[in-house]
Amino acid sequence: MMTELEADEVFMGEALRQALRAYEAGEVPVGAVIVREGKIIARAWNQVELLKDATAHAEMLALTMAEDAVGDWRLTDCTLYVTKEPCPMCAGAVVHCRLARVVFGAPDAKGGAAGGALNLLQFPTLNHRCDITSGVRGEECAGVLKAFFAERRAERKAEGGAEANPADN
Hints:
It contains five helices and five strands. It has a five-stranded mixed sheet with strand order 2-1-3-4-5. The radius of gyration is 16 Å and the shape is globular. The chain is α/β, with parallel strands linked by helices. α4 links the parallel β3 and β4.
């Protein structure tokens, strides 16, 4: 039987694999998995560009898959593993689905909603609060994002275009 810390490392590894799928597709490399009773019930990667849908974040896609797998919108006994701290949209959806726990890798001080810029996952007036574990395989998760944005900046510079938006980091 794995300890919680060991399980967190393993499941974040699968979220990282999903992030690499996003990277290969030219999407911002964020991956997510949802775990219930020690088993992955959903896995997803950012598909905003592919689907032409601003809401197609890895977390949102994984939540929909998990709801389908469970047969309910309530995911009270599930844990979300995601490579980057959830944004406000995703954090709001997590609260509404009532996930027990969120585990993320790379923090997002500018836009994260799990303690970075704000904390919607534990907002006192909302109807649900999630446990949060941050920094799991954080350097690896941040490294994938940094490499992606460095590559995009280099491409834009080579094309003679404007630098990437600094907020993209």
